[in-house]
Fold this protein.
Amino acid sequence: KRPEAYLQLSWMYAQFRHFDEAIQTLREGMRFVPDPKSLKLQLGTILVMGGHEQEAVPVLEGVIAAEPHNPAGYTTLIINYTLLDPSYDRPLQLAEKALQECPENYLTHYLYAGLLFREHRQDLGQPGSTAPVQRIRAELMESIRLNSDFQHSHYDLARLDFELSNYPAAEHESLAALHVDKDYGEARYLLGRIYKKEGRKQEGDAQIAKVEQQHIDDIRHVEAVGEALLAEQAAATGSPVPGLSRTTGAAPDSTVK
């Protein structure tokens, strides 16, 4: 009647992309485990990973209702909403609630900043954009304060400064992201672009040449990072073996804490 065996078995299935078997395992466990909250969270996570985003919504909403101060339910549903809603309205509203309930979780600050960045990206640097820029920066800096080893916060802060033509600051955060993960191709590609903007063409070309897969578009980055985080969330409650994300097909780099 303990959830651990179901969590581990479902994650083993999910790791090899057998999502239907993983889902069935968790639903079976929910029949026998007296307190199935962890099973419900993992069920919602794996539903999203398996492409069942709509089905995951009521599951994850139930997790949040049962545990309103558990950041994992919020972050998973924010990612799910982001995949479902290109306008970002629903994920932004949920992220604001998550910040109120879980202010010490670095992922909530990171996800909220990323959503604001994408919502206001076309207006960055324009008159009237000061307040959104300040809020995005503050959220990313808080995420970094809470977990300086999360490379994606450094990368998004570098992107913000790059968009604002603040190249020294962008260089600093790109290097910080690469310090955490030297194989972070997007950060290295951005660093190359920064060097070229600063007139250091040879250095910029050298950085870009190191990147096997060059810059990917913005929504692809959202999906890749989001689904890597989902895989880590499932692994954190299931098996400790690193897993595969649905979009990238590669082992996630970050650890959800």
Q: What stands out?
A: The radius of gyration is 19 Å. Residues 153 and 226 are 13 Å apart (CA to CA).
